[in-house]
Write a structure and sequence with these properties.
The protein is of the alpha/beta class. The chain has a single domain, classed as D-tyrosyl-tRNA(Tyr) deacylase (D-tyrosyl-trna(Tyr) Deacylase, Chain: A, 3-Layer(bba) Sandwich), CATH 3.50.80. Helices cover 21% and strands 37% of the residues. Strands 1, 2, 3, 6, 7 and 8 form a six-stranded mixed β-sheet that branches. It has a two-stranded antiparallel sheet with strand order 4-5. The relative contact order is 0.30. The model has no long low-confidence stretch (mean pLDDT 96).
């Protein structure tokens, strides 16, 4: 799994002009599920994100986790994180999981993360054309790949 984690002061997701998710302080997580991902990736990633100390303490230092600041979360499915761009100009998404594999893992990730934090995990709609808006706080953006845990 690949995740782009953005610390936000606000974020929202719209579909066909309707708001489906909206948060203030917290994280916007773009989640790409690959065809070689499983529940162990989902569980590891949700725990890693919940424990990341990327929110500022009273001294302005990033020492606090999502849980400690009572932060909110929006998770957005993003198969394009698995784009292959080596050849030509048209990205290939052959490494992205098919919906029958990806949807259960997407739901598992949201449920796993929800068990670790005190706020509801909001989300976009899997496979929908979404309009994502955010105010990146910092800016602070982190990339995590469960296949490359550096």
């Amino acid at each position: 799994m690949k995740a782009v984690i953005q610390r936000v002061s606000k974020a929202s997701v719209g579909i066909d002009g309707n708001s489906v998710a909206e948060i203030n302080q917290g994280l916007l997580i773009l989640l790409g599920i690959g065809n070689d991902d499983g529940e162990e990736d989902s569980t590891w990633l949700s725990k890693k994100i919940a424990q990341l100390r990327i929110f500022n303490d009273h001294d302005g230092l990033p020492n606090l986790s999502l849980q400690e600041v009572n932060g909110e979360v929006i998770v957005v499915s993003q198969f394009t994180l698995h784009a292959k761009t080596k050849k030509g100009n048209r990205p290939s998404y052959i490494r992205a999981a098919r919906p029958e594999q990806a949807i259960p893992l997407y739901e598992h990730f949201k449920a796993s993360l929800g068990e670790l934090i005190s706020t509801e995990v909001q989300s976009g709609e899997f496979g929908a054309n979404m309009q994502v808006s955010l105010v990146n706080d910092g800016p602070l953006t982190i990339l995590i790949d469960t296949k490359n845990k550096d």
